[in-house]
Amino acid sequence: MLGALLPLAFAPYALWPLAILIPALLLSLVQGGLSLRNIFIVGLAFGLGYFGFGVYWIYNSLHDFGMAPPVVAGGITGLLVIVLALFPALMFAFWQFSRQRFGEISLWLLPLFWFGMEWLKGWFATGLPWLSLGYSQTDSPLAGFAPLVGVYGIGTLCVLMSVALFLLLRDRRYSMLAILLLVPLAGWLLQQLDWTEAQQKSLKVTMVQGNIPQEVKWQYEQRQNIFNTYWRETSQHWDSDLIVWPETALPGRSDELEQSVLQPIQRAAIENGAALITGLVVSESDSNSYYNSVIMLGAERGYYHKRHLVMFGEYYPMRWLLDLFTGLINIPYSDLTAGPLEQPLMRVDGNTLGVSICFEDVFSREVLRALPEASLLVNVSNDAWFGNSSAPHQHLQIAQMRAQETGRVMIRSTNTGVSAFIDHKGRVISQTRQFETESLTASLQGRTGVTPFYYFARVQGGLAVLPFVVVLILARRKAG
Top-level CATH class of 198-450? Predict the structure, then answer.
């Protein structure tokens, strides 16, 4: 039950205090002398509720839009939830191992173990850091810590406050009020600081949300209607410096669209002194490779090929699985090539763009690759895969965290919503309604410099593993 309630701390519900209250209540369940096996089961049950109710929408993607039979979509979703649930289960078992050897002091190690668990979850098998606890705090005072320690660090602070709340309720330790009050106060004070500097010249940006239903998006006979939708919206905004279309806004391959679509767009952009970027599949006939890409059309062309592909959605980790799932799941272009790690950045009117595609903005490390050069962040996505679920709102919250961590404005353009302009503090400037064809325009300022998190992110992997290593070494010495 506690695990199932925890997703309410995240968007769209945004009951962020639950991220502190629920771990404290969980501690009350495991405070006794449980065996490693039993505390593993408690952690597993918690994880099943947490991720079962938190990422249920993966079933929608596979069944409603990937056309997978219910047993296949349910089986894959269930397997993923079980794998994710193993992380808190193993973490709590290791924490119990430390308690058995070092006693009550191990209670204060739990926030560090939580940090390690979330980092490992975001790294293992390419990672799925979705629903990391810190994402729930984008609109809380703890968001002020994002430019310092990022999403995993904020999750650690949540659990630290949970430990303090647990001790306050269990033992009436009123000294714990210092942690419960000072941590949010420090976060609020940090929110008043600007870690990056605004550029003097602003950029007028328009985003076009085409609202193309996923079930018709890849139908050949719909191509002209889709292009007409985007062209109609764009024709009203050629006075903008930059126009942004979503991920794979143009359904089809670049070689198919070059003469009929890409070149006319480029000519129009040049005539109006603008640049337009759009998502599409870029094909390379020489290598028979296909990329999920963003292309910039204007006085200069630029390309970005997605680096971090979605397992089973954009690539198959074991090639023989392709034959097994081809007849069961119908996802267009589901065997793509990953783009190179180092790629030239796009530039528009004195601004350098840090581009990411869909799932990539879930990973701090992917967004940070463009820094410190990038002055603006751009994420294009197609959250139509998730339908009318909580996922698009969770994804927007993740984008807010990336803006907070980097001290950069985020331009987030999606097919069916939620598209949004997010300022460098992670606050939503304006956003679209879901499932409507809509355009947004804003005057944005790029920013220079880096936040402390830019450096902290380089060492957080080592910090994540360190507590586990230290406990194992000390336990071995104590046993000896």
Answer: alpha beta
Give the pTM: 0.94
Residues 6+ apart with CB under 8 A from 221: none
State how far Cα 269 lies from the chain centre.
Answer: 31
What stretch(es) of the chain map to CATH 3.60.110.10?
Answer: 198-450
- Measured CA to CA in angstroms, residue 110 lies from 80, 85, 162, 271, 285 at distances of 25, 17, 10, 59, 52
The per-residue pLDDT for 351 is 96
High-pLDDT (> 90) share of the chain, %: 82
**What integer pLDDT is reported at residue 459 of this predicted model?**
97
The torsion defined by the Cα of 215, 218, 223 and 227, in degrees rounded to 10, comes to 80
Residue pair 47/23 in contact by the 8 Å Cβ criterion: no
Helices (H) and strands (E) in the chain, counts: 16, 12
Q: What is the DSSP string of 243-284?
A: EE--TT-S-SBHHHHIIIIIHHHHHHHHHTT-EEEEEEEEEE
- What residue spans of 103-176 are helical by DSSP H? 110-121, 146-171
Residues designated as active site: 247, 306, 358
The pLDDT of residue 329 is above 70: no
User: Does residue 335 surpass a pLDDT of 60?
Assistant: yes
Quick one: pLDDT at residue 323?
A: 53
